[in-house]
Amino acid sequence: MGKKHLENLSLKLQLALLKSELVELKAKCQKLVAGLEKAKQELSDWRAEAQCKAAQLEQVQRRGFERDAKVEALQRGLCEKSESLRSLKEELQEARGEVQRLELQKKELQQELKDLNQRREFENKLATEKVKLYYDVEIRKIQKEVEGVKRELIQRKP
After folding, report:
1. Which phi and psi (to 5°) does residue 151 adopt?
2. Which H/E stretch holds residue 87?
């Protein structure tokens, strides 16, 4: 019985050791399963966060494209306004030149008008003097005739 008993004892001991190992393995397995579940949850959380960040990145990029489009539109508008301003400056310069030319022409015309007025005034005075001279001559002629008629009348009176 000794050998069998030893064998039984040894089998019992082996069984106990194996049960102990099984408990340890089950505990390790549960830890691994728990760790795996935790890792799956972390992976799921990470994927959700990555999707959220990808959506945020896409939204930021879309906003960036929109801003870029707005900036380009503003730059085009600025270029158009700059061109318009340049054109207006040219037109203003031309208009200033035209104003200067017209002012000079106005001065020339005013001087010409002044000269014409002076000439007309002179011609009027000259015509007035001619008329005066003509009437003076005519009055003298009439006075001579009147004196001649008076003399005749005086001679006819006896």
Report:
1. -65, -40
2. helix 2-156
* CA dist., res. 54 & res. 47, Å (int): 10
pLDDT per residue as tens digits for the range 68-93: 999 999 999 999 999 999 999 999 99
End-to-end CA separation in angstroms for the chain: 226
Amino acid in the structure at residue 68:
D
| Residues 104-123: tens digit of each pLDDT | 999 999 999 999 999 999 99
Q: What is the mean pLDDT of residues 43-64?
A: 92
Q: How far apart are alpha carbons 47 and 21 in whole angstroms?
A: 37
Q: Is the dihedral of CA 146, 147, 150, 156 positive or negative?
A: negative
CA-CA-CA-CA torsion sign (31, 34, 40, 43): negative
Q: Mind giving me the DSSP string for 16-52?
A: HHHHHHHHHHHHHHHHHHHHHHHHHHHHHHHHHHHHH
Tokens 């106005």 belong to 106
Note every long-range contact of 44-50, with CB atoms under 8 Å and residues 24 or more positions apart, other chains counting. none
Q: What is the DSSP letter of 157?
A: -
Q: Whole-angstrom Cα distance, residue 139 to residue 145?
A: 10
